[in-house]
Task: inverse folding
């Protein structure tokens, strides 16, 4: 039996597995990508999708125009899967952009202070996974924060905002809720009455008060 998959998980496909490019003209580039041993990322699907069909993504590096290629594959095509890289795993690669070295160390310390293990997607993750040059001085870092309670989220979001002000870099990403769904940390830090909640098969608007009540319980 396959282990469950979540958005942002990484998957490697069997060499002989069929898959279908959803981005027009991307078949040859994706074939080369997988031949190099690189993974794809699990993307949000649709309620109408077959339960055994995965929507996957491959973001190309800046040298290729930052194209985001989309494809579909059967669940049985996956031969290896894992959660996104942790921030510590990415930092162990020592990104070759000097402007990011101190900010990354401080992000690690911030995470440790809150007792959290953030996971990385976006440019920093793909550079660590592939060795290709994704990260630039002006890059954002995208993090997925698994946060057990609204109170802990409030403290974390305040620290993230202060980190941005201190370093002049942008940290994007999502707060992962205990039920496996996620919300943008910037939306959560705001005051909108409704929040966009993202799941593997859909996304929906949910009243903030309702989400916080269920989360706190």
Result:
């Amino acid at each position: 039996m396959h282990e469950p998959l979540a958005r942002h998980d990484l998957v490697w496909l069997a060499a002989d597995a069929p898959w279908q490019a959803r981005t027009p003209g991307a078949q040859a580039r994706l074939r080369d990508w997988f031949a190099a041993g690189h993974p794809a990322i699990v993307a949000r699907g649709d309620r109408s999708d077959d339960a055994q069909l995965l929507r996957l993504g491959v973001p190309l590096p800046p040298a290729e125009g930052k194209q985001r290629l989309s494809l579909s594959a059967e669940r049985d095509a996956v031969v290896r899967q894992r959660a996104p890289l942790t921030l510590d795993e990415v930092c162990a690669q020592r990104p070759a952009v000097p402007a990011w070295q101190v900010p990354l160390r401080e992000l690690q310390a911030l995470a440790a202070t809150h007792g959290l293990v953030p996971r990385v997607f976006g440019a920093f993750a793909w550079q660590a996974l592939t060795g290709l040059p994704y990260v630039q001085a002006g890059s954002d870092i995208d993090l997925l924060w698994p946060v057990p309670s609204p109170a802990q989220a409030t403290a974390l979001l305040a620290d993230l905002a202060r980190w941005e002000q201190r370093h002049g870099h942008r940290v994007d990403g999502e707060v992962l809720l205990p039920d496996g769904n996620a919300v943008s940390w910037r939306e959560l830090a705001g005051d909108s009455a409704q929040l966009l909640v993202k799941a593997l098969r859909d996304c929906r608007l949910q009243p903030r008060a309702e989400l916080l009540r269920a989360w706190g319980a």
Q: What stands out?
A: The two ends are 31 Å apart (CA to CA).
